[in-house]
Specification:
This protein is mostly loops. The protein has one helix at about 160-165. The chain has 1 helix and no strands.
Length: about 170
């Protein structure tokens, strides 16, 4: 270049410019130029992108096609949906939801999820339960582990103990 028959080419030469095609030396490039396409590499203008192209990678930033993703990549963030790598997570993010497992941010929760577990605290969905869990507390219902027991006063003595005392 210059000249009316100038064609872009990747090199070698001082007028080399990256170009996407057509031609055997075509290379993807992010710009400048009308044939710019996002690409993950190699090259100094590499940018993460979700597509189109065989080097598409999920990324959260920067770019208009940013999507939350669990990995791979340094900007990975846990997310519940929508993507094939969705994982339940307690936060941070607008799709955060409590979950019991498997993840380092697991928290016990009563519902709604297939991994729900009863728990007494601390959460707005806490429910009393007798077992099995380190926060177990006796309760009168509901559930298969409910234990009837009087609330307070003299009647707080278990019924069997009352019968035994009445015999003496």
């Amino acid at each position: 270049m210059p000249g009316p028959d100038a064609v872009p080419h990747a090199g070698p030469g001082p007028d080399a410019v990256p170009h996407a095609g057509p031609g055997p030396d075509a290379v993807p490039h992010a710009g400048p130029g009308p044939d710019a396409v996002p690409h993950a590499g190699p090259g100094p203008d590499a940018v993460p992108h979700t597509g189109p192209g065989p080097d598409a990678v999920p990324h959260t930033v920067p770019g208009p096609d940013a999507v939350p993703h669990a990995g791979p990549g340094p900007d990975a963030v846990p997310h519940a949906a929508p993507a094939p790598d969705a994982v339940p997570h307690a936060g941070p993010g607008p799709d955060a939801m409590p979950h019991a497992a498997p993840a380092p941010d697991a928290v016990p929760h009563a519902a709604p999820a297939p991994d729900a577990v009863p728990h007494a605290a601390p959460a707005p969905d806490a429910v009393p339960h007798a077992a099995p869990a380190p926060d177990a507390v006796p309760h009168t219902g509901h559930g298969p582990n409910a234990e009837p027991y009087p609330a307070r006063g003299l009647s707080a003595v278990p019924r069997g103990m009352v019968r035994m005392l009445s015999r003496t």
